[in-house]
């Protein structure tokens, strides 16, 4: 029996169409597994959203649990002559700042030369000496033989210890080497330099030269005179950094940073409500459409909600002035979300911040609310926690379903291959039968013709 290379050629039947229908029917067996994989993938994605919302809540709780939050100070400034930043060592108080002089950098230029490329040093290496406001700051550096003005500039800028930055300026009649002290203040001010072939124009600016001495900043704080080599003045006020901007008066007030505490509380409320919104979406059910959230009925979400509800609605550390969130102005609403009673919270922050710190971060004898909440969320999110366990379980089911799908797909391929082989055999058999039928018809027709001719 001959081999049929294309189904249906020998029989005239649409065997390819029939085989495609059988293949589609066989692959229908894969769809339930595909749906199960898609369902588990959707659950993994949903658990990822839950994990993200819990992580934000944990971060907010950790911020509230930091005891430094309740002892931090802020600096407020009235006036334009200075800015201020308070550090850990700062003390509350009000300070009147009068900036008399800003710190500046010294500048000096050489006398003019005709070309930037003409060699200014001899055939041997030379020493460039740089003098500053204090002789102890004086430095020397080597300048290569045959160096031009540009070469000298580049050598200075490449030297980390030069104490000055160099540039070349065209004054309209020639070229000058211009030096600017890298640091502000009188002691760091460039005053002179010496080098064969290049002369410093070291007369003061007011006498027609180019020397402009650097100056120290001068200010007084509450009437006390202070000198600083730069405009960032540290510890003139303990724990406070002043940034001088211009001459004039400024008042700096160091006080408890109530804004940071208020922002931390509001951040916690926002994170908690965002988590509630996430869980509500993931567990939702639309009765009209029958559409359910990816984690509708999931036990992990129920456990998370139950545990958090117990923590948020329960009492805090014993022995403190506050025991419930409502005591400090955070209300638990009927829908399970939190809201802030601003007036009550502001009063607590302004007048009883230590008790607020004890409530959130705890005391020596008891954990605070934020500490307990952060620890509980951390357990849920840990490697052995409920959320990670749910994600790992869904991932394992996806792997198992994937293996099952692969085996079923191989089985479908084998079945279709068997059908193809059987159809090929059928096609060949029908082709042979058609050939035999045609042959016999021809023989019978020939015999009939002979019989009629002989009659």
Automatic annotation (TrEMBL):
Residues 214-435 form the Flagellar hook-associated protein 2 C-terminal domain. Coiled coil: none annotated. The keyword Coiled coil applies. It is found in: Secreted; Bacterial flagellum. Residues 11-104 form the Flagellar hook-associated protein 2 N-terminal domain. InterPro entries: Flagellin_hook_IN_motif, FliD, FliD_C, FliD_N. Pfam families: Flagellin_IN (PF07196), FliD_C (PF07195), FliD_N (PF02465). Its main location: secreted. It comes from the Bacteria. Keywords: Bacterial flagellum, Cell projection, Cilium, Coiled coil, Flagellum, Secreted. Homopentamer. Required for morphogenesis and for the elongation of the flagellar filament by facilitating polymerization of the flagellin monomers at the tip of growing filament. Forms a capping structure, which prevents flagellin subunits (transported through the central channel of the flagellum) from leaking out without polymerization at the distal end. Belongs to the FliD family. This is Flagellar hook-associated protein 2. The gene is fliD.
């Amino acid at each position: 029996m001959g081999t049929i290379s294309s189904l249906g050629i020998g029989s005239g039947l649409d065997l390819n169409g029939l085989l495609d229908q059988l293949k589609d029917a066989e692959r229908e067996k894969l769809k339930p597994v595909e749906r199960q994989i898609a369902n588990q993938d959707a659950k993994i994605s949903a658990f990822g959203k839950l994990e993200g919302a819990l992580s934000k809540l944990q971060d907010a709780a950790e911020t509230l649990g930091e005891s430094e939050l309740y002892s931090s100070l802020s600096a407020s400034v009235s006036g334009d002559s200075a800015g201020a930043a308070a550090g850990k060592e700062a003390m509350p108080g009000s300070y009147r700042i009068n900036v008399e002089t800003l710190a500046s950098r010294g500048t000096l230029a050489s006398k003019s030369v005709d070309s930037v490329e003409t060699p200014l040093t001899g055939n041997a290496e030379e020493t460039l000496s740089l003098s500053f406001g204090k002789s102890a700051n004086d430095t020397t550096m080597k300048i290569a033989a045959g160096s031009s003005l540009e070469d000298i500039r580049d050598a200075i800028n490449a030297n980390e210890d030069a104490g000055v930055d160099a540039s070349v300026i065209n004054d309209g009649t020639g070229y000058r080497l211009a030096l600017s002290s890298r640091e502000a203040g009188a002691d760091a001010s460039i005053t002179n330099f010496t080098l064969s072939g290049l002369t410093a124009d070291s007369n003061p600016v007011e006498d027609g030269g180019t020397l402009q001495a650097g100056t120290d900043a001068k200010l007084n704080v509450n009437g006390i005179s202070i000198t600083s080599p730069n405009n960032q003045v540290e510890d003139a006020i303990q724990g406070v950094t002043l940034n001088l901007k211009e001459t004039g008066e400024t008042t700096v007030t160091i006080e408890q940073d109530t804004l940071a505490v208020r922002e931390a509380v509001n951040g916690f409320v926002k994170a908690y409500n965002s988590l509630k919104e996430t869980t509500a979406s993931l567990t939702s059910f639309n009765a009209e459409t029958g559409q359910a959230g990816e984690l509708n009925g999931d036990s992990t979400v129920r456990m998370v909600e139950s545990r958090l509800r117990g923590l948020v609605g329960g009492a805090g550390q014993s022995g403190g002035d506050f025991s419930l969130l409502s005591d400090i102005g955070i209300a638990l609403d009927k829908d399970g979300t939190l809201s802030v009673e601003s007036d009550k919270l502001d009063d607590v922050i302004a007048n009883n911040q230590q008790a607020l710190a004890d409530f959130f971060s705890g005391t020596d004898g008891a954990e605070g609310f934020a500490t307990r909440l952060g620890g509980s969320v951390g357990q849920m999110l840990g490697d052995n926690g409920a959320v990670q366990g749910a994600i790992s379980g869904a991932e394992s089911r996806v792997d198992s379903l994937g293996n099952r799908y692969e085996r079923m797909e191989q089985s479908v391929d084998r079945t279709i291959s068997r059908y193809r082989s059987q159809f090929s055999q059928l096609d060949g058999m029908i082709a042979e039968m058609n050939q035999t039928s045609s042959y016999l018809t021809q023989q019978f027709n020939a015999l009939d013709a002979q019989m009629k001719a002989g009659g």
